[in-house]
Amino acid sequence: MTIDLTRRTLLQLAGATSLAMAAAAAARAEGTAQGGGPTFASRTPMRVGMVTLRVKSLDKVADYYRDVIGLTVMERSAATAKLGTSGLTLLVLEARPEAAIESRSAAGLYHTAFLMPTRKDLARWLVHAASHRVPLSGFADHLVSESVYLDDPEGNGIEVYADRDPSQWQWSEGSVKMATDELNIPDLLSLTNTRVPDYAKAPDGMRIGHMHLRVGDLAQAESFYHGTVGLDPTRRRSGAAFLASGRYHHHLGMNVWQSQGAGQRDESTTGLAWFSLVMAKPELLAAQEERLRKGGVKVTALADGVEAIDPWGTRVRLLRV
Predict the structure, then answer these.
(1) What are the residues whose beta carbons fall under 8 Å from the beta carbon of 298, sequence distance 6 or more?
(2) Which pLDDT does position 39 carry in this prediction?
(3) What integer pLDDT is reported at residue 14 of this predicted model?
(4) How many CB atoms lie within 10 A of CB 298?
(5) What is the DSSP letter of 57?
(6) What's the confidence (pLDDT) of residue 24?
(7) How far apart are CA 216 and CA 258, in angstroms?
(8) Using alpha carbons only, what angle is made at residue 277 by residues 216 and 169, rounded to the nearest 5 degrees?
(9) Which residues, in sequence order, are bridge partners of residue 258?
(10) CB 41 within 8 A of CB 251
(11) Strand 157-163 with 145-151, pairing
(12) Domains located in the chain, CATH noted
């Protein structure tokens, strides 16, 4: 299929009339506009493994992640769908047809961020999204990465991004410099043929690079995910905090922009059921489990690790490779 992919087309998909408006939308997705090697995120002591979502319409949402993101449907039944790349499960969907849609003011998922192996892969995917007229909610240059934002059919946020090489990241006193600038779309699209989409499926190296959560209190969230889970702070700005393992820019984002003061999540609604952090070494998992127990966190043993629950009821699984 031949398409006419212009800046105007992409802006229309993002519901914007200018790049500045699209960057502003991305700023709302990442906070404020104040101021890599793509496999880096997976070479750290801890990394994001997979995500499980509760959804009302299993078929509709599974088809979306298959057709729009390019994930392969690995298993599918009336109750669940497992999707991923190169035989690795990245996303599990659980059918909850009677569930209410989780409020955006509740604690829970802000977005799941799919990390492309290369910048060219991001360009190829953007041509694919535009050719299928996929609605976008914003795009931006974050200095450490370049990102496109969208929502699945039930409002679960998605980021598709590519990292810049870590040698280009700017660190100062333990904080990495990030921003929400205009994405240079022409430069990005110069890497691929915009008239002939060639993104048939997600590249084998695509992973979930980071998770971004809505929380009810930022200090309480930092106490749990930094003080207890053990992720390191990499950036703090108004209403948001970012944490990582091994000096990645962030494996976890957290904000209170819509959810300040949120209470316990309602597990009968749609949204994030749990996500996993994978440990590179077995001894690290043992140390993390001890740290959780010493922190007074209720820990549930699993066959391949442990599950803990954050202050708002979001489940995080610490798993061995």
Answers:
(1) 308, 309
(2) 73
(3) 60
(4) 9
(5) -
(6) 58
(7) 9
(8) 85
(9) none
(10) yes
(11) antiparallel
(12) 7-282 (3.10.180.10)
Position 271 scores a pLDDT of 98
DSSP state of 269: B
DSSP tag of 66: I
Q: Which residue is associated with the tokens 């299993």?
A: 58
Q: Which residue has the tokens 């749609």?
A: 270
Residue type, 20: A
Distance, in Å, from the CA atom of 59 to the CA atom of 198, rounded to the nearest integer, reads 25
Where the chain has pLDDT below 70, the residues are 1-38
Using DSSP's 3-state secondary structure scheme, residue 176 falls into: strand
- Locus of tokens 């991305």: 26
Q: How far apart are CA 41 and CA 209, in angstroms?
A: 6
List, in order, residues 6 or more apart from 135 with CB less than 8 Å away: 13, 14, 15, 150, 151
DSSP 4: -
Q: Where are the beta strands (DSSP E) in the chain?
A: 46-55, 72-76, 80-85, 88-95, 108-116, 138-141, 145-151, 157-163, 171-172, 175-176, 207-214, 232-237, 240-244, 252-255, 271-279, 299-302, 305-309, 315-320
Place of tokens 């391949």: 304
